[in-house]
Each structure stands twice: as structure tokens, then as C-alpha cells.
Amino acid sequence: MAIKLYSPNIRPTDTTSAVETTPNMRISQATATQIGNAISGAGKTATQLFRKYEIRKSENEVLEKERELIEGNENFKGISEVKLEASKMTDPDAAKTFYQNGYNKAFEGLTQNYKHNFTKDLFKSVANKHFLKDSISVTNSANKNFAIHSQGLELSSQNKLSKDFVYAETTDLQMLAEQDANNYWSSEKVKTLYGANTEALKNAWFKERDIAYSKRLVSQNRTAGISYAKKSKYLDAKDVQAIEKYRVGVAKENKQILKTSLKEKENSITKNFEDVTNEEYASMLELAKNSDDPILLQRLQDLNVKRELLSFLKTQNRQELNNLISTSDDIEQQDRIQGVNTSRDKKLRSDFIKSYTANFVDQIEKDPIGTASKLSFYDPDSLPISDVLQGGDISEFVGIGKKRVSIGTLISLENNAPKRFFTNDERSQLTNYFDSEKDPANIERVISTMSLAFGSQSDEAFAELGQNKNGQFFGYLGGLSLITNNNEVVKNALIGRKLSDDGFKATVPSGNVQYSAIVSEYKTAFIDNPNTFTAAVNIADYIYTKKIFDQKGKKADSGSFNSSLYEEALQEAIGQENGPDGKKVGGTAETSRGYKVHVPNFIKQDDFSKVEQILSNNPNLLQKAANNKIAINTEGKPLDIFKNENPHFVSVGYGKYIVFLGDHPTDNEPNLIPVLNGLPDGKLTNVDYFKINLNLIKDDLILELKRPNELPEFSDEAG
Q1: In terms of domains, do 474 and 372 share one?
Q2: Is 219 a domain residue?
Q3: What is the pLDDT of residues 329-344, one digit of tens each?
Q4: Phi-psi category of residue 639: left, alpha or beta, with phi > 0 → left and psi -120 to 50 → alpha
Q5: What is the value of pTM for the model shown?
Q6: What is the 3-state secondary structure (H, E, C) of 244-299?
Q7: Residue of 684, 593, 690, 677 whose CA lies nearest to 641
């Protein structure tokens, strides 16, 4: 840009020697020339300064764009990142193309507009320098990567060739692997790849392969391994010496590994009833052969004898195992009598049977179901407890639970073990749930599921969860849910329990006379089954708590006691509910002799005296209810229990009673009625007492009780 001087008042004069610059002012021509030159020089300097200023601004803009070119922004990757990605590629052409595309995108994104005059040319020059430098770097890196990748692929091929030879299962396969290796190292492909280094690499490869094979042979057969190493043209004396040293280390290592494995497997077989697989035994045998330890080899052979015995012992129950021990002891006794030593093999087998049996007995008594799951002839399925606790599908649990009843009973009978339905782990899982769960609805759901699964054995299943208060509580609730059609009783008990746990104090007052009188009165129906009655009272207390809360809310007075409400709660806890016709069934009723008796839920409370009459009038039905046992007198003769007076029925289970004559057992010494067992001539083989089970004649009773005609009253002269 030129600097213009605006001088409107300067004008030429008539003389050449002076210049009139302003009115009344003159300067000489020389002076004027000097001034013009000065002004012209100043203009040039200003132009130069302006250009430098513009260039500097352009250079600053270029620096900013260069930074973005390298680092990138939200619209494109920087060429630094693009270069890095391209440099990792193994295809040089693809790498160049990748970088070119990345560079173009970045460059074009930065050249859409420029703020200053010189930026365009300057930035293009800077960008081109980056492109040329990076292109060379990317190409070199990709070429190196390609070579490394190619060599890596070849190395993988070499490794396969080596393994094919070292681990060949047959001589033919090994010969084929040797041929493949020779063909590979003589191929033009390999020579091109490695050039002058091919021969050295080949020898190194064969050396490494033969060392690996020699070591493998040494681990199996010392002589064969050393022999192969000595014959190999690729191995020298130092290599052979190293392999011999390796053999010593292998033997020592094998010995320690085998000791550990033997101890583990011996315990596993005896204590956990876990077999040793053929693969495991073969591996141990290989270690034993190369351990240079005859004692370990003998132990391994002994282990094989135990393996064979284990398969048989796992099919034997407790009595059968004891019979085997007796047989072994008899053999040893005969040897001693004959003055000969029992053979080592016999002694080994005898000792193993005894140790196995000792562990079996210990485990079957502690965890019958869990132990049975390890054996060959029970094989109980695992209960999907988590599904039930988490509110999932219950069908599998119910199905397996039903099987557990029969399996648990069978295990108990055959092994003189406690009857259990759960493994120890399953029992812990359920116990923890009942101890921690507070939601009545969830507890009721689980109780109902268990009751459905274990049926009439539910009380035993719940009792198994623990002999503590919780175990008895949930066990009784489970049984109650089975015999009643009204789940409200179970719900109320659970809600009452939660109210009590949450601090609601309006429960049964301790030491209350009315409370004690009610409990004492109802207890007479359970004098032979006190644990059941205790559980029922516990349930009744919680039901009563719920009923009081419903009546009075949180303001209920803990010092007051509603006896009629509590008696209602106790009856419900015993099993009372409304029958189809609205009349009470279950709970307790009064016998013909005025004592309380527990009534099954298929009998109305008002009908129990009729049940007595039906049994009195129908000896065959009575005998059926007694499971075909015959009541006898003190002389061993058949006895008509209804002849002189009505007997007493005392609950020993749901619908099950032991029968007494004379005074009620609470008033006097119990007068039990013996039954005839064993011989047809009346001689007793053992003594039992007369009991009846109304569940055995349930259908008969229901039919008889529906008859419209009145049954005759009892007579003291009857019979």
C-alpha cells in the first residue's frame, strides 16, 4: 500500500530557484528535493513494516492450523493419530491410503477459510512438509510390520511343525512330521524370507525341537531320551549334559508331585468316595515310573486296588459293609489259626473296607442325604431351594421333595441312620431364610410349598430344620397348613409373630390364671404328645396377638386377657376350622367320657362320640383302624375294649390315638392295652400297645357319619 501526501496549498512559483510552499513562504529547490526524497523513503519503510505485520499474523494463523492439523478437532482426527494407526498396519498400500485419506480430511477441514493474506500459501507449505515426512514414516513402519507379521506367521507354522514331531503318537506320524520340516526349510519361500540367515535359523530350529523331544522322552524313559539326544546331529555334548541334568530335576519334581497327588487321591477315595479317573491314574503312573521311587510306585498300585474296591463299596449299605468287615476278620482269624501270614493284598483290601466303612458311617449319620448323593445306588436330585425362596417356579422343588420322602426313609432304614429329607447345605439355606425373613406373605409361601412337597411328612421336614424355637414353630405351621383348608390361621400366626417381633406387647400375659387354666385343660388331649401341644400353644399365642391387634390396635392393654378369644386362637392352632356346612371340624372335642380329644379335620367336633359308637359297633372297622393289631388282656386273650366302658383316646399324632382303659391317664396310672404280636398260638414275641389310626378308615367314617339314622347310645352293659 502507497502512502499518499495531500498538499492542496503547495503550488509552483515563477522562479526555479525557490519554491513557495505556503502563502508568503518560499524554500529553495534543493530543499524541496531533499524533502521529497525523505517523504518517498518514509513511504517505503511503512510499506515494509505493514507487510511484516501481515506476515506475522498469517504465521500465527498457520501455527494454529498446524496444531489442529496434528491434534485434530471435533470434525476430524489429527494426522498424528492417523499416522499412529496407519503405522500399526501390516499392509503398506493400505497404510498409505489410510494416512492419505486422514490427511486430506484434516487439510480440507482447515482450508475452508483464511483470516489473513499470506496464510494460504504458508499453511500449504507447512502441511505438505508434514505429509511428506509422515508418508515416508508410515510406509517404513508398515513395511516393517509386514515383515514381522510374515515372520510371525512363519514362526507359527514352525511351532506346529515342531509340535507335530515332538508329540507324534505314532512312528509314522513322526516320520511324516520330519519330512514336512525338511521340506519347509528347503522351500524357496523360506529362503526369500530369511535370506542369508536361513541356514542358521534352520539349525537353531532343529536344535530347539530335538531338545524339546529329548526332554519329553526323558520324562517317559530316561534311556530313550538320552539316547536320542546323543544321536541328534543338531545337539552337542553340552546339550546332552543339560538333558541329563534335566532328567534329575524331572525325577525330583515328579516325586513331589506324585506324593501330593497320592495323598489327595487316597483321601478322596476313602473320605469323599470320589473315584480316580483313568486319565488321572495314567498320568500318576507316568510320574511314578520316572520318580525312581519304588515305594511311591507301590502306593500307586495300592491306589488302583482301592479304586476297584470303591466301585463295589459304593453300592453297599451299612449292614452290607459290616458283613464285609466280618468276612475279612474271619479270613484273618483263619490265617492266624493256620499259622500263616495274611497276604499283603488281603490286608490292604481289609483295611480299606474298614476305613471306608468308618467314614461312611460317620457321614451317613451326620448328613444322610448329602452322603447318599455321593453313592451309586441312591442318587437324590438336588433341591432347587433358591427358586422357591426367590418366588420362582415350585414344580421341580415339589417333585424332588416327594422323592426325598421315600429316599430319606430308605436311607434311614438301610443304614440305621437318622431320617432326613435335606442335605446339610440345604438345611442351612432354609434355616437361614426362616431366621432372617420377616415378611409373613413370603414365609407363608415357602411353608405352603414345603408342605406341598413333603405332604404328610412335612412336620418331620420342618422339624429337621432345627430343634430350636423357630424349627418347631415353622414345622407346626407347615403341618397346620396341610390339615386345614383355611390358610388364614397360618397367616394370622405369622402376622402375630411379626407384631410381637416389632414390639407389640399386647400378647398373652405371663402367669395369668385364666390362661394357665385353658392351657392345662387342653393339654389333657396331648398327654402322650407334649411337644406337639407346646408348639400349638406357641402358635396360639401369636394368633391371639393378631386377634387383639385387630380388635384394639396399638392401644391394646397388655395387662388384660380375653379368655374366650384366646381359647378360639388355641382351637385354631390345634386345627379347628369351619366345615362345608358351617359346623366346626378339627380342633378338640369332648369324648363320651367328658375328656378333650384332638379331632382330625375330616370329623366334626360334635361327631366324635359317634365315631366311638361306630368303632364299638363294627369290630372289623376297629381292627382296620388298629392296622390289624388285636387288643389282648393280661392273660393274652383277645379283648373287647368297649365291653365294660368306653376307652380313652389320647392323641399321638394327627388322627392317631393310643387307647387307655379305666381312669383317664391324667387321673391315675395309665392302663395301657397290649396287642398280640407274632405267633398264632397267642404267645408274645414282643409287647406293643393298642393304637388306632382314624386316617386308615377315613372314607369308612365319612360314609358312616352321613347315615341319617341315629346311632345307639353306649350302655355300660354293652357286650
Answers
A1: yes
A2: no
A3: 888 888 787 777 778 8
A4: beta
A5: 0.54
A6: HHHHHHHHHHHHHHHHHHHHHHHHHHHHCCCCCCHHHHHHHHHHHHCCCCHHHHHH
A7: 690
